[in-house]
Amino acid sequence: MTTVTEDTNKPAKFVPGQPDMWAFVLFETLVFTAYFGFYLFYRSQNPELFLHSQAQLDLRIGVFNALILLLSSWSVARCVQSARAAAYGPALKDAFLTAFFGLVFLCSKVFEWARQIQMGNGFGSSDFFTYYFFLTGIHFVHLLIGFVVLGVVIYQLRSPARRNQELVETCATYWHTVDFLWVLIFALLYVVR
Amino acid sequence: MSTVATQTASPLTRRHNPKRELWLAWWTLVVFYNFFFLVFFVITRVQPPPNPAWDTPRVVQWFHDNHFGLLAGFAIMFVITGMTTMSNALIAYSMRRMSVSRAFAYSYLILYSLSAIPGMLLMCIALTVGALRPDRDPELIHWIYDFAFLSFVGTMGVFLIGSLVWMLAILIDKNRVFPKWFGYLNLCNGLTEIVVSPAWIFRGGVLAWNGQIAWWLDMVVFGIYTGVFIFLLRQMIQREDFGTGPLPELLNAAR
Amino acid sequence: MKLKFNKRLLIVWVILASFTLGYLVIDHSAEGQAGSLRSSAVITSSVIVIALIKVRIIFREFMEVRQAPVLLCRLTDAWIVLIAAALLGSYFIGTAIR
pLDDT digits over A43-60, tens only? Predict the structure, then answer.
């Protein structure tokens, strides 16, 4: 256990992953913030319509999605730490676990969209649903890219020749972005009144 | 320079001013974008785009107001369109300098050569046709108007794949031709291009072809992206050593 | 060593999950009070603030900003403030203009 305190007292500060990925994360967050800004502005112009449409969403699915993605962030963070400690077996398991959680989110989203469309709420049904499908849609695209990124992680961890801690951390940073973007989207679409 | 560089260096290095053609390509790129901005934003006034929700008489009015601007501006455009080939060639050249397969450069060239037609020329042609005979049937003029702007704004996807090709090349590259963050910026640019596709559905609101998200935000990202890559291409030419290894970092003397 | 770090991550997740579930409580109370659908600046603001707290926790714990150079800490904190300003600003300006 003494090694624990030595590690936590490590003076060396490090940037997790490539700083370049952080630049991307911050830039993309700004773009999304712009989307959110438009959404909130137009929502405040027409609160009744937005409230009415929003009531058609099932908050429980949103909560479930949020918990799943938070779990995936947890597992990928664990993966990074395991990889850093050269425990590549557990790291690989965590990477697969992250992909699994991502897949659950994906299926849940598709199911939710199908349900909404069945209920008659499409992309152009109302201003709210335009934003709903737009925001969840562009987030979905980011999630799909996330699977590619996880693929890179798994590819790296698999072979001793390729293991690159910086790359694993870079990919994890991307995945966390998918997660925290959903935290914001969930709050704005499902909960905000 | 390292011995590796001189062994594999091209005959260009023995010539006076080996970077002459590269600078010519770069300046052509800069001049083209300046003309592009002038023609689209000032002369023809097709950017920012007019409203898709306008009725037919209003659209005819717009053609009437911009009549000479449209004809003159796009005439200039037809003459200078060839400049884009230099721009695409320079970007393809940057990929040839990378440690990645030549396939990246070639596919980018093919993609962008073809994409200029739906991505830009179709609108120029359509609006010129619309402006040529002002006494044409108003319904036809309205059709031309929709066709022009949808083809310009709605076909952003053709550029998306190009961005992804360049991004992939940059991220795999070991010659450090571009910084990795620029690879990711290609992704940002590509993603905003996806966001434009709802313009096919909406005639108003933030996702219409003149909408705050589909056009304004997209333009901001595209503007930043274009400015950045023009700057980085300049740096690349300054750093170029005509070798096949990692591109040396920029020193004050490198020219 | 792995065990201690793992526990910390798990605790972080539990905290984040609690905030998420807290939304259910807010939603429930909102409906309970109003009876019908009603917009509320208070709920909206608090929801946004809570979301940003969660984002900051994700930055600091999951994304390891806590162990990063000070510049990154400041930058991510600045981003949180920026997002808060943009979101709350858009909402309140929109409400004022109406």
Answer: 999 888 999 899 899 999
Residue A105 has pLDDT above 60, yes or no: yes
Mean pLDDT by 10 residues, chain B (255 residues): 49 81 95 95 93 93 93 94 92 94 94 86 94 92 94 81 93 94 94 87 89 91 94 94 86 53
Q: Which CATH architecture does the domain made up of A19-191 adopt?
A: Up-down Bundle (1.20)
Cα-only R_g, chain A: 19
Annotated domain spans of chain B: 17-239
Q: What angle do CA B141, B142, B145 make, to 5 degrees?
A: 90
Three-state SS at C52: helix
Distances in whole angstroms, Cα of residue A149 to Cα of each of A166, A181, A183: 13, 16, 20
Token digits of residue B67: 């009549």
Nearest partner of C11 among A70, A170, A186, A76, judged by Cα: A70
Interface test with B, best of A21, A24, A143, A169 (most B CBs within 10 A): A24
Cα gap A187→C82, rounded to integer Å: 17
Instruction: Concatenate the DSSP letters of all residues of A11-40 into one string.
Output: -----SS-HHHHHHHHHHHHHHHHHHHHHH
Cis previous bond, B48, omega within 30 = yes
B180 near A CB under 8 A: yes
Check A19 against B185: CB less than 8 A apart.
Answer: no
Distance set, CA C26 to CA A190, B29, B186 (Å): 12, 55, 40
Q: What phi and psi, each to the nearest 5 degrees, are found at residue B208?
A: -75, 170
Asked if the interface predicted TM-score (ipTM) of this complex is over 0.95, the answer is no
CA distance B233 to B24: 12
Q: Answer whether C5 sits within 8 Å of A193, measured CB to CB.
A: no
Within 10 angstroms of residue A49's Cβ, the number of other Cβ atoms is 14
Instruction: Judge contact between A29 and C83, C-beta under 8 A.
Output: yes
What residue in C sits closest to A59 (Cα-Cα)?
Answer: C24
Q: Which of A20, A74, A189 best tests the C interface by mutation, with the highest count of C CBs <10 A?
A: A74
Q: What is the residue range of C92's domain?
A: 2-97
**Between the CA of residue B15 and those of B10, B20, B21, what are the distances in Å?**
10, 10, 12
Q: Which of A29, A59, A74 is facing C24, going by the closest CB pair?
A: A59
Give the count of domains, chain C. 1
Q: Which alpha helices (H) appear in A46-126, and where do they start and end?
A: 47-54, 59-84, 88-118
Structure tokens at B249: 């970092």
CA distance C2 to A7: 11
Report how far residue A158's alpha carbon sits from residue A88's, in angstroms, rounded to the nearest whole number.
8
Question: Which of A163-172, B156-165, C29-38, C61-70 shows the lowest mean pLDDT across its residues?
Answer: C29-38
